[in-house]
## 1
Amino acid sequence: MTETEIQSPTSPRARFVRPIEFDMRPMLLIPAIALLALPLVGSPSTWLTLTLAGLAMGMIIFITASGLTLVFGLMDVLNFGHGLFIAFGAYVAGTVLAPLVAWTSSAELWRNLVALGCAMVAAMVAAAALGAAFERLIVRPVYGNHLKQILITMGGGIIGEELIKIIWGPTQIPLPLPEALRGAISFGDASLSRYRILAVCIGFVVFAALAWTLNRTKVGLLVRAGVQDREMVEALGYRIGRLFVGVFVAGSALAGLGGVMWGLFQQNLIPQMGLQVNVLIFIVIIIGGLGSTTGALTGALLVGLVVNYVGFLFPALTQFSSIGLLVAVLLWRPQGIYPVVGR
Amino acid sequence: MSALALEGVHTHIGAYHILHGVDLVVPKGKVTMLLGRNGAGKTTTLRTIMGLWRASRGNIRFGGKEIAALATPTISAMGVAYVPEHMGIFADLTVRENMLLAARKARYVGDLDEDRLRWIFKLFPAVEKFWTYQAGKLSGGQKQMLAVARAIIEPRELLIIDEPSKGLAPAIVNNMIEAIQELKTAGVTTLLVEQNVNFAKRLGDHVAVMDDGIIVHNGTMAEFADDVGLQQHLLGLAL
């Protein structure tokens, strides 16, 4: 055996290469659906506006769903209370932004972004803390029991929603966009709102951070291994329980960030917002395949596009469009488009 | 001098009382074979040592320290490596990722001890050959080699392997015997559960036979291998 043969596998440059073929077909669905919609929409500029808005909306949905990818997809926890972290994050952000009105009403973009950044960090920290308590008190006793998970997390979500009503009141609270993020940028006859451009940027950052952590770090390796054989990871000397608490908390923090993005997208806060988004993000996770960040992103973009096209072409069917997409995808791939976990 | 000692260990799994007071001594630097009929409690004994099932009564001492109440990761961190009967390979990860996972101090493959890796590649060439392959796509023998290689990626005081030869082709069984003999030469204490009589005879220094949740025989493999009557009586077959 030569030195060169040994050098190759241990080379720091060859750290986590995964010789697994990537299936492009689900991703090609995105341009395929877009092209299919072009003759139906008719006007190219309207089509372009709808397509860009749909993809940006998909990114917002992805940010909101990314936390559940970890919690449901990887940890196999059916957390029907996930929407609580979304709503809680949004309300905390609203509370942080309220005294920063001088910054959010400024026409200078950097002031808007600093205020928004503070709100996002506060929302993520608060949602993470709530997630840690939720995991300890509600989820931990029911690991491995789906029926109990559904019942108890749904109950936890309802109690949380009532607590939001007690703290912030039951009525709608406006959450206006910062000044520089209002309005749209035009491309010929097409346009895209400034806020959606920001959402796309944040979505890509979240996707890149998740993909890097799961595929390029030891923590990600442990999470992927723990999903396959929890007991063996423990036998190798790792405290998987602590790791999974960390994953749950990270998923809650991402839900908090998603709540900020969703609240600003709707430009108002209501206590039921988490429950409303919950259904949509479960659809995205199931379309994407359990545990897959790439799947969740692809699923979210597909849902964003389809909802936008259907909303324009057949407004009465908008509410059913995402469920129709879910059914179609599951008929094609019963485990979702990029399943990581074979459940 | 013993590396591991069990005294009156009882284990319950739910309503079932599986181990009824196991007394077992694993001498340091030797290979101890744990034999017995199916359902005798061999796997339960190994899992109880690792803390995967909790001993309801009795003492387990490793390196002189009581470990019966410790959590599995703590026992592993004390230098005990475990290869379960199902091998515990992470099928969706690559061979390299499986190895990296077992090296607790390494964050990246570049952090692995190169001399040790070279030694492991010599013991198990398949690990090097399929380094970047998905572990789930390996054959049964290759998976078993990976499982043992993974267990020794860091220096360990005690290696516990549950049926390493199960379902393997004779040529691969010979490879495994040579590898475990080399580990013994390197001073690794080994506790093996085995059904393959040839494997047990060629590797074992000591032997313990289990039946119905207790140890019914303890001694040297040489004596046990010579006593056909005892083998027939305890195992229902001759080695």
## 2
Amino acid sequence: MRRRLTSILLHAVLVAGAVITLVPLAWMVSASLMPTGEASAYPPSFLPSRVTTEHYRALFGSLNLGRCLLNSTLIATTATALCLFLTSLAGYAFARLRFPGRDRIFRTLLAGMVIPAQVAMLPLFLLLKSMGLVNTYWGVLVPYLAPIFGIFMIRQYALSVPTDLLDAARVDGAGELWVYWHVVLPLCRPILVTLAVFVFMGTWNDFMWPLIELTDDRLYTLPVALANLVGEHAQDTELMMAGSVLTVLPVLLLFLALQRHYVEGIMMGGVKE
Amino acid sequence: MRSEVRAGLLFIAPALALITVFFFLPVVAGMLLSLTDFDIYAIGSLDSVRFVGLGNYATLLSNPVFWKALGNTFTYVLLGGPLSVAISLGAAMLLNSKLVRFRGLFRTAYFAPVVTTLVAVAVVWRYLYHPRVGLLNQALGALGIGPVDWLGDPRWAIPAIIVMAAWKNFGYNMIIFMAGLQTIPESLYEAARIDGAGWWQQLWRITLPMLRPTTVFVVLMTMIGYFQIFAEPYVMTGGGGPLNATLTIVMLMYKEGFRWWNMGTSAAAAFVLFVIVFAATSLQLLLQRGREE
């Protein structure tokens, strides 16, 4: 009896928590479908009196946010692909290949992780400016390509790759690049998926760096475009909610699809958001 | 073996080159930059740059706005850090109970805000906090509580932003705590129950001590996150208002560097942030080590 009561109480608290957690997101979706003015009307209604997609059409039409959706997709996808390649090469080498200075270099990289990214932003901006890369896709991509935490994650995982498999391939006369591509990469698949989810989401959600690096609104990523929009259209609550849905939905869906991999990444620890 | 050395160096070369040129080099350059009067004219001709020693730091330290930003940043860390960690631990303990059904569903719900885009949910919360029509004040009004101008009142602006930040980030630490809780052997609790220990005693004598390594990690990561607050004031309070009540160090660094083009001062602010984060990290690790010995 007491156990039953505890269980009911526990679930009541859990449901209340879930409601509080999800209300802001649910309201965002609901308000984005309301006719203009309804989200800020009094008394308030949580659900739209009539569902309209006019705000989404405005976003893709006159406000040209479709272009920003494309920018975000392009930047996050390219960053993820290149990052996976570069960090897996390096992570594997740090884990399984012996070369002079290996451990010292790795320790230096790890120490670098305590430096907040913002410390490098201003000089990096000036450096890219001198290279003519400010306000370009490549310029904005640069800091995402070789994250130290990615190298760290791959290295930890690659340490567990069975030595026999690597040696067997080498005895057969395979070159190191062949071993990496045909033996190591397939074995590291789980960690690569996890890292891919992290990098894609991190790049998609990042705000400060693209805000600094991109000055032309045709190159804006969605978060930058949205922050810009709130300055001009603060009164259009429903439009702003539609913009928020457009920004959040792709990563939220990606998370729901690959949830397990994302959660495993967090459990590995040492992962920076 | 020669080929292994060559392959190793070749494999780390691209990543290492990128990190060196686009991270370590800028960090060192930033340190040097903070010792110069680098400004918008210097971008055109480097000849106009002068070495000013610790001048930028002196300027910062004599600027009341800097102290305001520093104080605010610590308020975020010292209020938000404990709040976030407490909610995470509470949620993890609830979800870890053997009685819970649909655990996966609850976990996903609690975790959802973590993966959302900060800028987008900051926009959403800006409207939830609206003094007249915001959902929060409407709900409080129904309970008979008068409207509060959450983001417009200097007293409430930081707490309001912290609540939003905690809502967004607690799911992340919750996952780490859940993993930590699962490593505590059930036999410890059984033994404690036989000795007549209540829920509260079990929490203080078993759960919290056993979770200590996890907690140190979580507190550290959460604190570092709060030290770097930027997007929230940018989106929710127009860049640090009202009356600089929500201004942070990173926001000040951004404004100095990219609004007013005082690169030297901006670089100095960045280094103050670095020193603080570094000190906080060292302190945490030191405390942890001291406890273990």
## 3
Amino acid sequence: MNLELLTKLTQAFGPSGYEDEIRALIQEHAAPWADELRTDPLGNLIVHHRGNGQGEKIVLAAHMDEIGVMVSHVDKEGYLRFTRIGGVYPLHCIGSRVRFANGTQGVIYLEHREDASTSPKLTQLYIDVGAASKDDAPVSVGAPAAFVRPLVQQGTRLISKTLDDRIGCYILLELLQQVQDSPHDLYLLFSTQEEVGLRGARTAAFSINPDLAIAVDVTGTGDTPKALPMAVALGDGPAIKVQDPGMIAHPKVRQLLVEAARKAEVPYQLEVLRGGTTDAAAMQLTRAGIPSGTLSIPCRYVHSPSEMVDSQDVENAIKLLTAALA
Amino acid sequence: MKREKLIEILQSLSDVMSTSGDESLMRQALRPLLAGHVDEMRVDSLGNLITLKKGTGESQLRVLVTAHIDEVGMIIVDHTTDGALKVRAVGGIDDRLLPGLNVCVGKEQLPGVMGVKAIHHSTAPERLRAIPIKDLSVDIGAKDKKEAQHLAPLGTRVTFSTRAHPLGELLAGKAFDDRAGCTALIALLHGEPFPFDLHGVFTVQEEVGLRGARVAGYALEPDVAFVLEGTIADDLPKKEDVSLTSEIGKGPVLTVMDHSYISAPWLLRHTVKLAEELGIPYQFKQPGIGGTDAGAIHLTRGGVPSLTLAVPCRYIHGPISLLKPEDLEATIDLTAAALRNLTAEQLATN
């Protein structure tokens, strides 16, 4: 694992719609290995690696954006109220820190509640940036912020904010170096606004118009105390998606990934996810339809600031995709 | 355009019946207002009124500006044996506002009343509850089912019967969401040519899911889109120091992020910079509320950088909304400035 790269990727700023910083970082690392790079009207970074003319036109998508918050009100004492960017849950927020694009950090905390027996609502939380008054607040309404939490490696586990989906971005960047001799016409799509509705992938898939599309993203697991039953566990290999609420993976794409796992001799798991979806759901329905599937990295605590994956699953995903594209 | 003219247009458009999916009267009202000011005018398969105002030729940009011509209202779904009309909502209507209202039925604007039990017959607990729309009926004075069916067949639309009028320094009228945006778009089309061809589209079916804008965005393939709206002003006194969605009198409302889209950051910066330079007041809409045609347009084809600018209006989606003419003027001024200063270079570098 290139921990230095993954650290940079997980810590770069990029709430949905505000992906400039993370895009610049990915662009810098992809450029030496790409034939062509472009940024489209919605901010997607499209990295093209030409094939030999014999292969297929394939999109591999990982989203650059992360969940976050946006200031909706600054009160006269200088406390900020906020709304969610993507799936942000109040319980994950309390005590968390967020960082704004201008570097300002804030602590999220909770109003006093007489009845503490229920889960708090987002409207009962506020951000404290240490301001003395409204005029003293260093950010204003409309400012986006991302959660703050460093990357740590512990044994084979990796723990950080935003592994959803910077781990996918990492995999695509590593993969790009491995597939330099691929016969296929490859488009690595680092997509925007996935967390707010798969928006970037939808327009990018339209303009690329591929023969086949694969999203690389995280998925949930069933291996934690009293977890919702799910036959996916950390460390048991990358998960080949069968379906989620947004998509039924195309059997051809699923089979391609299964055969690649066998060829690369890496373990894999089949995945049926009950909540959530990936960019593949949007790409699949583009134009006249694009056969699509997803390779998932099992991840605990998705959308909390401390997401956890296994580095072996990551390494195996790179091997699997390399074999699939050979 | 002079304020008196803007007010005259807004008031006349406010009075037009044009519920989602049945917008012919708005198209009819718009044609004479646009004639001579645009180079092309056509209606597409969903009913969008699509205009083209040719530019000076300095720029090859394709720019789309939209405002929606539909409004929330009701549709007749059944007739009772005693000649009353049963209705359902078209778009987002608050059931609490309906009992006892004057309404207009059908394109002939038949007067009707939203029937309600007299206070003498209602109980105290009943009076504290909102009556769901399915339990209400519209009374047009028909003597029986047959007459009701004849006068107002199934599918006939029902709207608020409000006539627009001044209210102190404000204007009152129905459907300022989005007749305010329509008025702003008309004013832009009446102005000097822009450096580029401007595609001004009066969209249909926004209130039921941004439907017209979606196909118009696909057909026109713009490089950039602006959406003109009338949006929620909730500036009445509040007990607590909490978010306002927007306030009237504080200028155009720019949407950074709502449920339907995130504005292109560079387009927002461009517009804010011009507002600051020109001294045009502006405000940001409370993020995370509502959605507009920009939600559909920005996702068409390969993606379209988009921005929504709105006139703040109190009590939208109700029988009477209020706005301040200065806000409408400032919205037109800021949109015009944002358009006139758009360059292809901005698009290429962002």
